Amino acid sequence: MPQTLSELCEVLRPEHELLGAKFGHLDEIAAMIPLSYVCPEEEEGAFNKKAALVDLSGLPTILQSGKAAAPFAEMTYAGNKLAVGQCAFEALLLGDGTLASISLLARSGDEEFVSWCVPVRAAVTFAWLQFLLRSAGKTGQPFQGLEIHDVSSKLLPLLLAGPSSSNVLSDYLGERQLPTSGQAANLYLDKILCLVVALPAALAPSYLLLVPPVAARVLWRSLLSFQEVVPVGRLAAKAWAEDALPWLTWVSTKDQVIKSMSELHDAQVLRSGHDFIGARGLLSR
Hints:
Elements: H1 5-9, H2 13-18, E1 22-24, E2 33-36, H3 40-49, E3 51-55, E4 61-65, H4 69-76, E5 87-93, E6 99-109, E7 112-116, H5 122-137, E8 147-150, E9 156-161, H6 165-173, E10 183-189, E11 192-198, E12 206-211, H7 216-224, E13 229-231, H8 234-244, H9 261-266, H10 279-283
Parallel strand pairs: 3-13
Antiparallel strand pairs: 1-2, 3-9, 4-7, 4-8, 5-6, 6-7, 9-12, 10-11, 11-12
């Protein structure tokens, strides 16, 4: 079992080398990751014509669990209030209303949330959540029992995106149904239990697959056995995501990020109302 992000990034390296991958650094990820393969044009086209398969190892992942997970998530994340099995892109604001990050937040259980953010915002995101939890504890422990952990090395994230992606995954499921856009479910893919997150509408159809590292090479090869599936490096994946999600460029810096309430609403990462941390700072602008 990998103990660090760097170790996780090595799990699929032999597979990438067999495919002729070019490795390098990107977006504050310390480890070498596959930036591209032999034919960049085919990689770019896969998102529109086939199913792009991307190793997203290095993606920061935070787990919040405990009886107080739901009220804490609703206080800290400013997007939709999620039911079990739902996911959304949500703004996480600092106390002054500036952006800590925009994260993909999924409610994976009654008392469990998982979130993912871009690597460059990972440190401030995790530190801010930990600070809020400690601060709440000093004022009467309203979130007693809540735990927040960096679990980035525990599951290997794969992205499957493009018009053929739903058919590919459905082939594994038999009578089971794929989650629809904005939904998440635990499903067996080739007898491997994975958390399958159907990404929000702006990226649909696309799926984030959280795979046990010990089984990642098996599932990677299984997915590539479909003629429609094309291995895609991180450069093409980043370009595709930034085209679909313009706000990604906002959070691709370590600098302070100041956005107005109307900009965050337009980006669909902010809910109506002001019942979240940072709302007063937004209103004061």
